[in-house]
Design a protein that fits this description.
The protein is an alpha+beta fold. It has 42 helices and 15 strands.
Length: about 900
């Protein structure tokens, strides 16, 4: 056995290395050092110890050389993966050299041993901290000597901190086990000789080709497809904002699955052979290589930055990888957003390629249907120019199909009409001929009709839009859509890329139209049942975020884009005007509902003036609901539903009966009447006391259910006891916490501190003073999951609140250890913005603080306002992932608004200082 043979892959790896072979691993020099150490060593243990030091130094030098070269050429993934493979080969080979030549010299009749790399290592593609999968191949059964060699090698490699997966098998074992286990079969598909006996390695190669990889591969293909589906189910779609580079949809494993199947079926050795094998067209192979290179580069940088085998692009790592790959800020977008858009575009390409290839293989290996099933299944009639191949729509004559570019739109219409999938060959034809979609096609009335029918006619427009988007057809037909394709919004609020978010909003609208969400969305459902201009609504949703990713306000820019796109889609001028307005103000209703006190008549009056008509209100309400629901799977909740519903109904009433109905006196009279009706058993005198002890804002600001609670708490109030009522408000997904106590300065901030201390997230807070000197404060709080507190947790909640209010726990001190911002969230930039509005309310100044969210923020802000003698009447909290907008309705100590600019500046300075102090605590 010649244990010093160079690995036969050296010649293949060397041209791709990132540095010279000797810089990465100098085989001859290192083995010479080991030989010298063998002469010096007094015992085998001394030699082993010195060998480890020699190899550690070589490993460190090699890693440094590769990392340096990769840093200088951050996209050269092929060189990086080949270099780490070459370095690993060197260490494996030296481990075999020292064990067989010095530690455990071979007996006279040396048993045969061959070391084979399998899996990714066998393929010759390694990231910095990839596993090293080794097959120790023996001719029959392993001997005591071979077991000793293998054990000694493994200990050396483990001491080098390599994560080694290993197995000792004969060729017969390999075939038998691989037949039973597709994971083993896949690993052997990419075996590669590293060192040891070459004849045995060649026997393995010949046997595997003959006995394992010579069949049709149907079972292997089915296993790989099933494995892919289960992996995608576990990892989620490729649109998830923190994707797994290796296992996620559109990741490296998808590309590898494709190659494994191609290698099994076609016997190819390199991905370049996929073109000659007819798997890919030349341009498709180029996109395959580009995606593969990009994903490997990302994975390499991830490993180097974390110093371990990290595969998930968490938010913090996205920023670091973008910097390592030398991305820069562009046109108002952060470098990380530019990088992640590139990532998602490559992931989409991977999805296209794997779908084309694997779906075609599915067709090739599809099982025949039972005869009776084929007879009795009713199939839709296909229009001329198409044919059905394995229940997929295919193109009958490609030349005829391409002679009229409108056929590329008709294909999607036919797929929706029949409910069938599009055949992968038809997809390839579309993708390869997008250049045929010119301005002439875009302005063709028939093209406009087809596209609008895709949105309006078939009931599942998201299916057509998603397929069009993935193939590039949507951006070809609406070029203004192209910049937002795969565009990531770098925050924790949005779960999808911009294009996928738009498709999700349209999917929501289609579901509402089909009455699938009637119980969950009664107002939006009733609006659609009454009838709206569906064309306007669908086009508005399609274009509402089309202006994102630029330095300008995306709502303003989007409205400008609508003026060009909407007429091109065939909309009339009045429809264009309405779509433009909807896009320009698509955030208005959401902002008003979530960031303002909608019980304040001025809020509703201002909103009604902006909307002007019930027709616009209807359209904006449905668009807002679809938009919020399209942000992420858990973004819409009952709290938002109640706010949107209340704002809609109040505004609708105001527009129909007149804005003069929106005044405090009317609301106060109605609220007092409702209270009397809710307390029919109360004596008249008690009711008179209760209705006379509160000022007007109290009656307009709370629902009758809260009025009843406060009436009961105040009826026999003890000034020495804090009255507390905690009640789950299931309609709002929150717990209502009501407090009654004698009025004194700073009580609002103390309550905010007490609630922060128990981990409660405040979503709304209202504070009122009675005429006889009591505070009536109502807070709506949620747990860390955004839900109302379970009834079993309310006693502990009450106990902690009472302790804090009695001064037994100082919230400011206790919160210090809870202010920490999670590592993955530190990458987000959330600039602080503080505004003062004296027009949005008749009697209060509205202070809006837009900043990064963290535990205890509301308490810090409320405490700062209290210290400045600011009276806080209401606080409205809107959270958007890592960003929060805390809105305070305030007056000064004399009951006046803050008109003075100097007072505003002083307050703003103090609030900013409080925020910075909290940030310092959170980052420490």
């Amino acid at each position: 056995m010649n244990s010093t043979d160079q690995p036969n892959s050296d010649a293949a790896l060397a041209p791709r290395l990132s540095a010279s072979p000797n810089e990465i691993y100098n085989h001859l020099a290192i083995d010479a050092q080991i030989a010298e150490a063998a002469e010096r060593a007094a015992t085998p243990a001394d030699l082993r110890s010195e060998t480890i030091e020699i190899l550690k130094a070589a490993q460190a030098n090699g890693r440094a050389a590769i990392a340096s070269a990769f840093s200088a050429a951050p996209f050269d993934a092929a060189a990086m993966t080949a270099s780490y493979t070459y370095l690993t080969d060197g260490m494996v080979k030296s481990a075999l050299f020292v064990t067989t030549q010095h530690l455990h010299p071979a007996p006279k009749k040396a048993p045969v041993l061959s070391v084979i790399g399998v899996g990714g290592y066998g393929r010759g593609e390694m990231a910095p901290f990839s596993d090293v999968d080794l097959l120790f191949l023996v001719p029959n059964t392993s001997t005591k000597w071979t077991n000793t060699i293998i054990e000694a090698m493994l200990y050396i490699l483990w001491d080098l901190k390599l994560k080694v997966g290993h197995a000792t098998r004969t060729i017969t074992d390999c075939v038998q086990l691989a037949t039973e286990d597709y994971t083993i079969q896949t690993a052997l598909l990419e075996h590669r000789y590293v060192c040891g006996d070459t004849d045995l390695a060649e026997q393995l190669d010949e046997t595997l080709k003959r006995d394992l990889f010579s069949g049709s591969g149907q079972a292997f293909i089915e296993a790989k497809l099933e494995e892919r589906d289960s992996r995608h189910l576990k990892q989620g779609q490729r649109y998830v904002v923190e994707p797994n580079v290796k296992e996620g949809k559109g990741g490296l494993r998808d590309l590898q699955s494709l190659f494994w199947i191609a290698k099994y079926i076609h016997g190819v050795e390199h991905s370049a052979d996929l073109v000659a094998a007819g798997v890919f067209r030349a341009e498709e192979y180029e996109t395959f290589k580009a995606a593969e290179n990009f994903l490997w580069a990302v994975r390499g940088h991830l490993h180097l930055l974390t110093k371990r085998a990290t595969e998930q692009l968490t938010f913090d790592m996205q920023v670091s990888v973008a910097e390592a790959m030398q991305y820069e800020d562009q046109n108002g977008r952060r470098a990380v957003e530019v990088f992640m858009q590139a990532y998602f575009r490559h992931a989409t390409v991977v999805g296209d390629l794997t779908r084309i290839f694997l779906t075609k293989l599915e067709d090739m290996h599809v099982k025949s249907e039972p005869l009776l099933e084929r007879w009795f299944r009713r199939k839709p009639k296909i229009k001329e120019g198409y044919r059905v191949v394995h229940n997929r729509i295919a193109i009958a004559d490609e030349a005829a199909f391409l002679s009229d570019p409108l056929n590329m739109l008709r294909l999607f219409e036919e797929a929706l009409r029949t409910g069938m999938l599009i055949h992968p060959d038809a997809m390839r034809t579309v993708k390869a001929n997008l250049h045929l979609i010119t301005d002439t096609v875009r302005t063709n009335p028939e093209a406009q009709r087809i596209f609008l029918d895709l949105l309006l006619k078939h009931g599942n427009p998201e299916r057509a839009l998603r397929r069009m988007n993935e193939l590039g057809m949507l951006a070809a037909f609406i070029p203004e859509f192209e910049p937002i394709v795969a565009m990531m919004q770098f925050n924790m609020y949005h779960s999808y890329t911009v294009d996928e978010h738009i498709i999700q909003t349209i999917a929501n609208l289609a579901r509402i139209e089909k009455n699938e969400l009637e119980e969950e969305l009664p107002v939006a459902s009733s609006i659609l049942n009454r009838g709206v201009n569906r064309k306007v609504l669908y086009v508005a949703l399609l274009l509402h975020d089309i202006g994102k990713g630029r330095s300008e306000d995306h709502s303003i820019l989007g409205a400008q884009i609508v003026r060009k796109v909407a007429p091109r889609l065939g909309l009339k001028q009045d429809e264009v005007d309405t779509v433009e307005w909807l896009v320009r103000y698509h955030l208005l209703m959401s902002d008003m509902a979530q960031k303002r006190d909608i019980s304040d008549p001025r809020t509703v009056r201002d909103f009604a003036k902006a909307v002007q008509t019930v027709k616009r209100l209807d359209l904006l309400c449905v668009l807002t609901v679809c938009d919020i629901r399209g942000v992420g799977p858990d973004t819409w909740n009952n709290w938002k539903a109640v706010l949107i519903r209340a704002l809609y109904r109040q505004t609708e009433r105001a527009l129909e009966t007149g804005l003069e109905d929106l005044n405090r006196q009317n609301r106060g009279a109605e609220a007092k009447k409702a209270l009397r009706e809710a307390l029919p058993d109360w004596p008249k005198k008690a009711l008179q006391i209760e209705t006379g002890r509160h000022y007007d804002p109290y009656w307009q600001g709370l629902h009758v259910t809260a009025h009843v609670v406060f009436a009961k708490l105040l009826r026999d109030v003890d000034p020495d006891v804090v009255q507390i009522d905690l009640h789950p408000d299931e309609d709002r997904d929150a717990t209502r916490a009501c407090f009654v106590m004698p009025d004194h300065h700073g009580i609002f901030s103390r309550l905010a501190g007490a609630l922060a201390l128990v981990g409660a997230n405040v979503v709304d807070a209202r504070s009122y003073t009675t005429k006889d000197g009591y505070i009536t404060d109502a807070f709506w709080i949620q747990d860390s999951e955004g839900n109302a507190y379970e009834a079993s947790k309310l006693p502990r909640l009450r106990q902690m609140i009472e302790k804090t209010l009695r001064g037994e726990v100082i919230a400011r001190d206790a919160l210090k250890s809870r202010d920490k911002v999670k590592k993955r969230e530190k990458a987000f930039r959330v600039p602080t913005s503080i505004t003062f509005d004296n027009d949005g309310s008749e009697i209060y100044t509205i202070i809006e603080v837009d900043t990064r969210d963290r535990p205890g923020l509301l308490y810090d802000l409320a405490r700062t306002l209290a210290a400045a003698n600011v009276y806080v009447a209401n606080a409205v909290i809107a959270t958007y992932g890592e960003q929060v907008v805390d809105t305070f309705y305030v007056k000064d100590m004399f009951g006046l608004k803050y008109y003075s600019e100097s007072k505003q500046r002083t307050l703003e300075k103090r609030l900013r200082e409080a925020i910075l102090e909290g940030v310092a605590r959170a980052d420490s």
